[in-house]
Write a structure and sequence with these properties.
The chain has 225 residues and is of the alpha+beta class. Helices cover 48% and strands 16% of the residues. The protein contains seven helices and seven strands, in the order H-H-H-H-H-H-E-E-E-E-E-E-E-H. The radius of gyration is 22 Å and the shape is elongated.
């Protein structure tokens, strides 16, 4: 399957994807691919890169920086969708723009100095174009994520969920909740030193904060067994 990448005619491909400016998006694309792989395996929380994470943020500068980035995303129509999805689309579109721009246009530039200037310009255009395209692509799916913001008192608190991540403890963890045939992924935490393993049945007992983080206990404990 990957033999085509080892063909001698792919030398130009290798050169483009590992050189400026395409290399920037190549690295970002690889990071996104690795992220989704480990996310599917349940080794990392899906919202680990989101702005409203539940880490300890006491410094005012950190909060201001988060608000600034969030405002920037909203300005370009990138809000309402997890940041990981936004970055993935931007990396894909940016890589395509840079690759084909480098392949088709840069060879037409006569001197090395002008090639550098043209490459910088191509990078800036690719960033802007990829952001605009991402904004268009996520527009239809934004409603899907807004529908997931359901009434927690009725649909989440008190519900039995299945641990999805390798472990759930006081610091990290994920669980799946089935609502009307749809699986919702919740960020959950246990109490104290209690730990749960993948596929354990736990019950959501409270919402910890405004970042959609929930506290869970063992189902047997909840049932008083």
């Amino acid at each position: 399957m990957f033999a085509i990448f080892l063909h001698e005619n792919m030398n130009a491909f290798h050169q483009i994807v590992t050189s400026f400016p395409t290399a920037i998006f190549t690295v970002l694309l690889i990071i996104c691919m690795l992220y989704w792989i480990i996310a599917v395996l349940g080794m990392v929380d899906l919202d680990v890169l989101d702005l409203d994470y539940d880490g300890d943020i006491d410094a005012a500068d950190s909060t201001s920086a988060q608000e600034g980035i969030a405002g920037l995303l909203l300005k370009f129509g990138l809000g309402g969708v997890p940041l990981t999805i936004v970055l993935t689309f931007i990396s894909i579109f940016g890589w395509l723009f840079c690759y084909y721009g480098t392949y088709l246009l840069i060879p037409l530039i006569p001197t090395a100095a002008l090639k550098i200037v043209a490459s910088i310009g191509l990078l800036l255009i690719s960033i802007y174009a990829s952001v605009m395209l991402t904004s268009l692509v996520i527009r239809p799916i934004r409603k899907l994520f807004s529908k997931l913001d359901i009434d927690e008192t009725k649909h989440i608190i008190g519900q039995t969920v299945s641990v999805r991540s390798a472990i759930v403890n006081a610091d990290r963890g994920e669980a799946l909740l089935s609502v009307d045939g749809v699986d919702l992924l919740l960020n959950v935490r246990s109490m104290g030193d209690t730990e749960f393993k993948k596929n354990d049945q736990v019950v959501v007992i409270e919402k910890i904060n405004e970042n959609n983080l929930y506290r869970v206990i063992a189902k047997s404990e909840f049932d008083g067994v």
